[in-house]
Amino acid sequence: MARLSSIGTIIVAAATLVACSGGVTDSPAIDESLASNIPWTRLSGRIAYSSGCGGGGTCIYVIDAGTRTVRVVRRYEDSPIITDVAWSPDGSLIYYAILSFRSASSWVVESVRLDGIVASIASSIATQPAIARDGRIAFVSQSGSSFPRVCIVGGTCLELISLNVHSRPAWSPNGASILVALGESLYELPLQGGPPRAILRASETPVRESFTEPTFTRDGARFAYVRRSSASTIETEIWSAASDGTDARRLIAGGANEQPAWSHDGARILYRIDNRIVLANADGTQPITVIQPTGFLNSVAWAP
Known about the structure:
globular
């Protein structure tokens, strides 16, 4: 099912931060109109999200509960698609995948500092960046091989025949393995060798299901994930399970629920439903809308 291969020239690791190409606005700016309806008393830390900007273009925003502000960290005037936002462990960088219609380039992974300076991280159809606690960067590559791969910057690529390229890999808290969606199920990939190990196997009868978008709590005790079912082509649910896949519990249902993210203490969970960012308790109770962008909401992440 899987084999290791040399990373070759797929990875372009940036030694220093470099300026982004044209079509951007460099200076971060506070958007006071977005901050007025946010339930600040329920929030902590910082939330990054990508969406269409008011007045055109595509923006990366940061909601900061400490300062009670919403900032535009980066604005692209040429309206690229920006997905898969993720924070660095120290909260100084936001990683994301970007597809620009201004050039002939394919999906690439970039990072942006909170002052708006951008660096290129990986190219050649690279998406779904996932950041380990020690700063290692994994991403999904769909170039240079017959099958999609999970690659690590400066390391190797793991070629996976049935990898779901629309699901971000999840680092285990100790960094020894990565949780990925293979087919409809979730598998643990040990980075020191050995075959993938099934953590959650999808059922095919009587209703076909699939699991994607795993994300661990900081202590590694549980992970959240998205469950899709053949019973509905529209609705998706957010579940959580113990780290070994047992004790699965449904947290959020009703609507297209995606992109779960845990709070630092694991007491709350953030997710996207339709075009809103919603916050709930860890058991799914007391959901409340954090923000509903005026433009299309692509991706959301909570700083660790």
